[in-house]
Amino acid sequence: MKLNDVSVQGLTIRTWRAWIDAALTGAMSSRPLFNVRPGRDDRFDAIFIGGGAAGRFGAAYLRAMGGRPLIVESFPFLGGSCPHVACVPHHLFSDCAAELMLARTFAGRLWFPPMDGVVVSIREVVELFRRGRTGPHAVMNYQTKEQLDVEFVLNAPAHIVNARTVEVAGRRFSGRALVLATGARARKLDIPGAGLRGVFDYASFVNDLDYEPGNTIVVVGGGKTAVEYASFFNATGRRVVMVTRGRLLAAIPDAETRAYVIDRLVEQGVEVHEGAELLELRDGGDGRVGSAVLRVGGERVVEATDFVFAAIGEIPNSETAVRALGVETNAAGAILVDECLQTSVPGVYAVGDLIGPPMEMFKARKSGTYAARAIMGEAVSFRPASHPDFLHTHYEVSWLGPGEEEARARYPRLVTLRLPPDTPDGLHVGLPAGDRVMLYALAKPHLSGFQKLLVDGASRRIVGAHHVGYGAKDAFQYLNKLVRDGITIDELGDLDELFLNPTYFIQLARLRSGAKELIGI
Prior knowledge:
Number of domains: 3
Oligomer: single chain
Structural class: alpha/beta
Shape: globular
Radius of gyration: 25 Å
Number of helices: 16
Number of strands: 23
């Protein structure tokens, strides 16, 4: 398939997908693809280096405001890491974990087949993802060109000439502003044996896995990525050993919510070692890892394994911009920006994972649009400090605002509304119950989830919310806006709910909102 200048062509999603597939598999020469309108000069309002979430959304926003953006992306597709190695596979694996937990919980009952000794293929799920991942990229290429009217160059790296100019495949483009949107990469293990085959991170796992992992998997790290992938590996029927130097899931701000999540992880069979360390990996004899040496509780433990998954953080891809422009970074390599997303070099902006935590999709998209607004002359102030958050285990875990401990320090008259009931037998009550947990609620009540709403009794304002279950994370985006705007328990209780969950918070609020003096549940 010969594609080079497509600026005057209308390409279908199918055509885009075929081209992306060919480019990724090496079935075609590695040629740049130009979607730069002919008959115009090569000056733009902004050049976005990187076509992931931050760059693509920023460019689209700038175009919608009447500006002329250009995206330069080294991959043959737009969309970045999310559909290629991060968000999309992560959600696929989380779906698998939830389905398999249900199947194993009810194995041999109702219509569920027996699951004793059943080990599900990890490789088949990864290959399913590989076959489908270019579909979202093709849609984004099509949408960006045909519907958003954004110009771009794909399959070619951008070489920064100066703060206003880049060179791409022998052509130079200039802009009033430069937006750095080159993302981040997984941090690699730095221990003996780290280079052995069978050692993966979230990207290499979906790109390079070419065998079926054995019975024991070692997961290194205690954050969101580590737990999410550990839950998937566990659900496939394998023994999972988690090794983390610090606390597991320290990102969850509420201690009671965190405890519920970890208890369910352990109940599913995940072995958790906090305050532990992976010391070295040993060759199994063929260049592939054969065992992992851990320090657990002050003792050395050797685990036989042919698969190690490292989730120890990410490193911003800032080196090129530092060399070319001298932009300032912090000790972790994140580019420093002001509230307008401008770097230490005037006219140069940085967005997304490149500016450090939280390294989340919502921040990437929003920071890109805020940079675009600043470039187009709007007064903006971007600080991703107040946001809802979530992670997957076998469940979906969502939260906003502080945990109960921090909230009590802030609000002396804090009131908590909680399900299941905070009683000795509360976990044996099938509440909360709703989306995807009704079977649990009736047959395994302690697996039906957890919810907590935090209310300042003095002002009656909602100050925090925490949820373990299913179906809530999308609602948290809107609940977070209401909480930031000062919604009270009375106003929350007056909203209309569609079903039990995730709108249980509305029902909880309604049960107490009539009281002049608030009392917890």
